[in-house]
Records
---
Amino acid sequence: MAKKSAKTLFSCQTCGHQAPKWMGRCPDCGGWDTFAEEVIASAPTPGTGKPSRPGRASVPVPIDTVTVDAEDRLGSGIGEFDRVLGGGLVPGTLVLIGGDPGIGKSTLMLQALYGLAHAGHKVLYVSGEESVRQIRLRSQRLGTLASNLLVVSEIDVEAILAMAADIRPAVMVIDSIQTMFHPALTSAPGSVSQVREATVQLMLMAKRSDITIFLVGHVTKDGAIAGPRLLEHMVDTVLYFEGDRNHVFRVLRAVKNRFGSTNEIGVFEMNDRGLEEVTNPSAVFLSERPVSAPGSVVTACMEGTRPILVEFQALASSTSFGTPRRTILGLDRNRVALLVAVMEKRLGMQLMGHDVFMNVVGGVKVDDPATDMGVICAVASSFLDKPVAEGTLVLGEVGLTGEVRAISQVDARVAEAEKMGFSSCIVPATNLKRAAARNGIELVGARTLSEVMEVLF
């Protein structure tokens, strides 16, 4: 008899949707030309098929009888990295870190492992993209050589699991998850099935053995971590390493964290010795601020519990075209357009005949509504060609009627401005009533945009 041909399915490489035949567009995520053919395994595969016999279920217990020891986090020796994680590494967690190629993901992981190894913890670095000799050369350049830092070049998930069970490291890094291969599946490494199965096996390993596992993920051209979106739901923490390879500053941001805040960021500077943490980002972002330049305004945004002073630069220039341009970098384009419309209606500034360009200095992305006043003051300063007084900080959320609304954590923002040498700060009048008295900085309350314009210009 002729041998029965293997059955195949077509899987979307973006969201994991499966179909019996090839489709040009995925009906779930809407991606074009994302389907790839995969062979269905004849035998049940771990984590995907039904088990051959029923497993032994765990016994449910009342939640109030569960004993919880004091939370003992592992410190990596990198303060900015531990801050983003919520104070350190929690044993048994699965962390997914993504970023553009060459942004410094592997460098950050190697430096974090070195800090843990230097503290006496046994750590394991598994690379599917580099040989052991290449890892040694990079580690020697970064100065991260330690006897407790074990390295291996392997892509077989079963071999890695057996290795981890034998070595019992405290922390393990998989670089990268797209290179991992499970022999029970016939699809190629990097496919949806392989990435999903490898992540499931590593997740079970982390939860059962209390090993903290970092998964380094590739990023697509849209900025999302490659592979099915299911990965971000399976892991405990998702970190994104942001920044431009042409700039020295990098920002580590948490978009999901079951054991800490998702608003914290860590700022790093890239040099020939690797990544160095920036403990005072405000001083760095304001170090080259021009003096008495129209269109330049300083405001304060909150990233988790940390206030950061950032500089907004705006340029309003007349245009000869019917539709003016709105080019925005680092801010929400729709939010800036809304604020420009408020300026036209409430302040009488005719910006419809002007192109508006805005930039957040340092490559930072700001989405705090408390910085609305900074956007309006920067555009107004450029439009009127009048600089904002040196040493002045502006804060406040702006409504559609032109009112200045109260913001949160105003004391922390003002304290940071005072520490950086600012002499005056414009805040919402509602916040001024509850703000703590300060001798080193003058607080000016404002209820409407007209009052702010009178004070500044």
---
Amino acid sequence: MVEEIELPPTAKPGIAVSGRPQPLHLAPDNEEERIISNIAELDRALGGGIVPGSVILIGGDPGIGKSTLLLHLLNAVAREDKPVLYVTGEESASQIKMRAKRLGTLHPATYLACENQVESISAMTLEMRPGLLAVDSIQTLSCTDIGSAPGSVTQVRESAARLLHLAKRENIPLVLIGHVTKDGGLAGPKILEHMVDTVLSFEGERSHAFRILRATKNRFGSTNEIGVFEMKEEGLVEVSNPSEIFLAERPLNTAGSVVLPSIEGTRPILVEVQALVSPSNLGTARRTAIGADPQRLALLCAVLEKKAGLNLYGHDIFLNIAGGIRIDEPALDLGVISALASSFLDRPIPSTTVVCGEIGLAGEVRATGQIESRIREAERLGFTRFILPRGNRERLTSSFTIKLLGINTLQELLEHLFQ
């Protein structure tokens, strides 16, 4: 339970001239060019760059690299002869400078302010009029006329609303860093995500070098677009070809491993699906999935038992998407089924084979989207055989050098995998 202070009522204003209804086709056009950060993976996630006056919210676990990404972004914008303002309510100026020096992001046009009062931040912004305003983090800010503590629902909502109004009125792009809860959601009221224009989620395990920047909301571009970074000593480094990185350490001719072409936004990425099936000594066998939906894994195990006759009941099953990436699309089904069957039968799948498709409860293989992009990516990386749904195979209009095998049932998949 959180106590909220009731604000005093204000007089209801009349209708402003700019607030009167007008025909939609007479509304002003936004002809301004986006601000290109020259960080290609970030620009991709944003839909092509930063829109002037937009509000971007970046969330992620502690230590994932949010502040590091922010310094890279500020440095990139400052290099375009645009002064930028970095407001922090969590760290001292010496701590920020130490990190910026290590990352090589010290630039004379980057200004730093250690402040957590929204009124002071607004005054600084109006006086300086920066090309980009960054606040780290929204949960540390407070408004002087609200009595609740920083981080409370009221303070987060009001602080975000006032900064958003400032950004829209002055046409200054605003980047907010947001904390997350232990469940992985953004801390504070849900209205915070509704208010902003773009929500970027920074994903990845701290033990893994790779970070995924995923756009979960974007009013100016595609949602579910991702950018891939690698954490190194010099900071976050762009990964321009994620498929080669994720497959670099893939074991060849090993049971329980198969390659799947996944689609993230508009980008095809080849990932390795690993499965381990081993007899269980417990009364109830375990079903563990890392990087995939555990409920989907249980469903596919049941289909494999019923339609292919593989007795998985007394076996522990572990599924892993190598590289720390998470995949939620149905096209993962064929990869999971293939890896499970390979591990259970202890028969390796040829290393030049990729699989992609959705599995139904009757054991049928269903078509999936953007299949041509997946085929081109597999062909580019040197794979020679692609197992896909027959529905996709029949609708292809382009020609490819890779061998395409269309299947309709689970039984056909197993025949092609181990022939």
---
Amino acid sequence: MDDTRYDTCVIGAGPAGLAVARALAERDLPYTHVERHTAPGGIWDIDNPGSPMYESAHFISSRTRSGFGGWPMPDHFPDYPSHRQVLSYLRSFADAYGLTGRIEFGTGVRAVARNADGSWTVTRGDGRESVHGQVVVCTGAQWHPNIPELPGRFTGEIRHVVGYRGEEALRGKRVLVVGAGNSGCDIACDAARAADHAVISMRRGYWFIPKHVFGRPADTLAGAGPRMPMWLEQKLFGALLRILDGDPTRLGLPKPDHKLFETHPAINSMLIHHLRHGDITAKPGITRVEGRTVHFADGTSDDFDLILLATGYLHKAPVAQEYFGDEQHPELYLSVFSREYEGLFGVGFVETNSGAYRLFDTQAQLIAGFIEDSRRGLPQAERFTRMIRDDRPDLTAGLKFVASPRHTGYVDSGAYLRYVTKVAKAMNWPTEGRPPSVAAARHEEVVS
């Protein structure tokens, strides 16, 4: 039988694409890997055109909670690695598993199309076509900026933070950062240090979680004690944050309109520091702009030279948008499997409240297990096909996430991992990759 029917095309060689490539390679499943840039790393390569990376960027999940299975981040990395360290980690991962040499670099994808027989045609940017049994779209979720319309006309400079690289762009300017996501908080802290005048505007209040609690990375505390019901965890950790940070409204921050953990976590210790020192001012949402003057919902106004929109990204997948549907949150089973189109998968589109790499690894293992068992005609593959179509698990852990586009389809990381681990166990699939030596030994066993 022609192996082309079973070949899987992996589009993108950022962290999600590398996790998928390793999972397929571990099972000796044929795959084709394409990447539009010249090396692995995706958004973490600050030199990649269109990357949202900036010089002060660091991981918001800690080193010990962020590596792929079988390839932990090095012990000499700090608790929160810089973007350059993350990039070096990803490239060492690709090299250790023999993935780098199998990637077609400098190869963009123009389109993905489903054929009448259920196979997929992938058209590269230069027009070349190839046919595959499956396609895994790993093009990333932070390349397409969400740019809201501001009411009125601003005569200064206004741009999305996707083009921001470092503090030099802020020096000598009066700067307004709009949005309090993790990038927005980082860049607001850059502005607090470098700009002549710095303000951060946010429409709603947030819970700001420090990067370290009791001297430990905050995310390592989640599994340190007995498992508690979510309402109790919210209550206890919320009380701890109030002890550590006090009343946020005293610093001009809006009071959170939701319970802790009901929005994507803002992991930042320095914004509170700069607010307390007067290096930056917090303001509510914008009501209108006139010339260089910005009017805020509290009735105040201020003049600015530069407005930076830290307003997030759309989860666009232009290579296959007609099959994924919603640009904000594709409707995929377990945030991976297309319910409507067999053989179409996406990794890197999950929105959750913890480190993503472990989830990417698990998702990649599910894809590889499903493809292998489908190829072998095993009954669990058919059972999983039915689950893709019909299973709609509640992965919120009881949290009532705020009503915003980003939180559509949002999942709690703990609930997600518990559920997919249960599914993988029932299917006899692993949930993480192996160390390189183990993967190589299995490869030798299969090919010998």
